[in-house]
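User: Please predict the structure of the protein below. I'd like the answer in structure-token form so I can feed it into my own downstream comparison script.

Assistant: Understood. Taking the following sequence of 111 residues as input:
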Amino acid sequence: VIVGAGMAGLACAKELVAAGVQNVLLVESSPKAGGRVGTDVVDGYQLDKGFQVFIDSYPESKKLLDFDRLKLKPFLPGALVRYQKEFYLVSDPIRRPGDLIPTLISPIGSL
């Protein structure tokens, strides 16, 4: 019996079945598998939720996932944070030196 059909539960079930274990029971309390990972559609927009950062060099993920089918995309470090009806950039100036000034002058966080 595997409790939870999140990423870990699904990976466990796949490994057990591949090893020849019969009668694997995977139970999940929510209406769908995937745990905290998923996509909601709101007014025609797709909103991803859950685990957003993925390191593709994890050995286990290379064994379990089909990266081509996932169509993974890189994205820039940082975020636009809405504060008092305005958006402010908060980024990593080491990886994106051009973001240093906007990050420093934003009212988000402190030094």
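That's the full token string. Residues 7-18 form the longest helix (12 residues).
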